[in-house]
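User: Hi! I'm working on a homework problem where we have to compare a predicted structure to a textbook description. Could you give me the structure for the chain below?
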Amino acid sequence: MTCGYQLEWYDLIPLFSWLTLRGRCRKCKTKLSVQYPLIEALNGTMWLVTYLLFDMSVTTLLYCGLISSLIALSVIDFRTYEIPVGFNIFILVLGTIRLIYEFILDHNSWPEYIIGLVSVSIPLLLIYYATKGRGIGGGDVKLMGAAGLLLGWKLVILAFFLGCILGSVIHIARMKISGESHMLAMGPYLSAGIVISIFAGEQMISAYLNYLSSLTVTFIGF
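Assistant: Happy to help. Predicted structure tokens:
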């Protein structure tokens, strides 16, 4: 960013390039932000977890692409309060691949992903127009629509609620501790909710349904 040096392929090897260069530009020796290796390490770790959970499969490949996009858009949204539309288009493409794959694999499961496309995004779109963009950002609406097509309606609804909870708790804490403004970038929190849903969503939903079932049995018993 300082000297305009055109990065070569060997400058772009995750973690190793930064370590080899000792965190400095190859040409002008300006210090490079520690953000780069941290994000690369986070991305690699999440890819590994995804592989361990889903093995080598189409789902793993799609989720790895989604996770990388979420990390990148979260950093950008946190800094600029804007999610570049290219990320949402890429996630939508991943969702379309998932939809086609599920249709070929099981003709009965694909509606879950169509419903996922609209189950969160349509209510958010109504909020967007009702508040003229003050209640929710357009990029957040697109993100939840594209993610819903990839995750299905159950996981995307869970992801949205988790994102809202994380955003509320963390941002309020930041406002109290560091004097952060009321303006909130939802992209990072929604992304965190999506990742949690990918890794543990099915278990969380199952535990919640079992809890409701036990309450129902207890209520009937009384």
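For your comparison, note the following. The two ends are 68 Å apart (CA to CA). The chain has a mean pLDDT of 91. Good luck with the assignment!
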